From TrEMBL:
InterPro entries: ComFB. Pfam families: ComFB. It comes from Marinobacter suaedae. It comes from the Bacteria. This is Late competence development ComFB family protein.
Amino acid sequence: MSLRDAIDNFYERLVQDAINATREEADTADYLADVMCVALNRLPPRYYRHPIDMMFYLADDELKGMKEKSLDAVKTARDFVREHQR
């Protein structure tokens, strides 16, 4: 097992949730993948080994703030990707 397989970035889950919440009918898989990359690059990484660690040690206010930051990053990323499509 690789060390990379032993960790995850919590923001990946939150950004995926924000993308699903803002999904539009015309969204393609390629467009959404680009949105996810741009959004994640605008957020700080938050790595963990076990999901229970994040849920146990993360305060409710902190989780709420992370969700808000994720949604803002996705909205900004959608605009950026639309403006820079090839």
